[in-house]
Amino acid sequence: MRQTEWRRIGGFRVVGYWRPSAFAPPPSAPASLPSRIASITGVLLILGGIMAVGIALLTQRHAPQPSAAAAGAIGPGHHGPWLRRSTPESLAIPSIGVYTNVLHLGRATDGSIQVPSLDTQAEEAAWYKYSVTPGQIGASVIEGHVDTYQGPAVFFRLGALRPGDLVDVNLADGTTAVFRVTGVREYLKSRFPAGTIFGATDYAALRLITCGGAFDYATGHYLSSTVVFASLISQR
């Protein structure tokens, strides 16, 4: 006569038949309470992890990207006013809610532009100290992070600017240099037009730069840069 035993495999009841012999598997002992608790806890942790990833993807905020209509012009088409040399202390862009101190940074060890610390200075912009000061004839460059692993950073909404928006740069001599945005553009980093961004101009130009475009999860970097072109229109 056959001996029947019911077992659960993968959550299903499965019946097995063995002839009574020394090779028949021993009857399964009921799982202990600690084992059951451990199994349930493991399943809950897995489900919790899946839910956390799903929620993170659904709630992820993406920085505004420049539209084709915002491309505008690189320069104003005329010389305009200019100011004497004075280093920038703070920056205000009311239309996107940016009010920040301005750091003075140079080059990193690899020769690239030094950027603020992602851990401690993500909410501050930085003037590239080897460019002219804001308001001088030439291109003054101020850059900042778009975001961090914790969320938006100082230039998160830079891509939302449009031609005609104003940028105020407060200088060390007490002057506020007022710039008007002429264009907002996105460039692939592999085709970044350094000459256009950093090159000499015959008017007082301001460049605001941050990361943009698609994010490469393999390298941990954005593939593009968002660049705002502005020119001096007045002072206060």
Biggest sheet, spatial arrangement of strands: 3-4-5-6-11-12-10-9
Fill in the CATH topology of the largest domain.
Sortase, Chain: A
* Main sheet summary: 8 strands, mixed, barrel
Find the count of extended strands (DSSP E, 2+ residues).
12
Number of domain modules: 2
Helix content: 10-25%
What's the helix count?
2
Strand content: 35-45%
Q: In whole angstroms, how far apart are the ends? A: 103 Å
Poorly predicted runs = 1-28, 37-59
From the alpha carbons, calculate the radius of gyration and give it in angstroms: 30 Å
CATH superfamily of the largest domain: Sortase
- Written as H for each helix and E for each strand, in order along the chain, the element string is EEHEEEEEEEEHEE
CATH class type of the largest domain = Mainly Beta
CATH architecture of the largest domain: Beta Barrel
Helix/strand-derived category reads: mainly beta
Mean pLDDT: 83
The global form is globular
Overview features:
single chain; about 240 residues; mainly beta; Sortase, Chain: A; 8-stranded mixed beta barrel; two-stranded antiparallel sheet; 2 helices; 12 strands; globular; disordered N terminus
Description of the molecule:
- The chain is mostly beta strands and 236 residues long.
- The protein folds into two domains: 3-59, no CATH class; 68-235, Sortase (Sortase, Chain: A).
- Helix content is 14%, strand content 38%.
- The chain contains two helices and twelve strands, in the order E-E-H-E-E-E-E-E-E-E-E-H-E-E.
- The strands form three sheets. It has an eight-stranded mixed beta barrel with strand order 3-4-5-6-11-12-10-9. Strands 1-2 form a two-stranded antiparallel ribbon. Strands 7-8 form a two-stranded antiparallel sheet.
- The longest helix is centred in the N-terminal third of the chain and has 27 residues, at 33-59.
- It starts with a strand and ends with a strand.
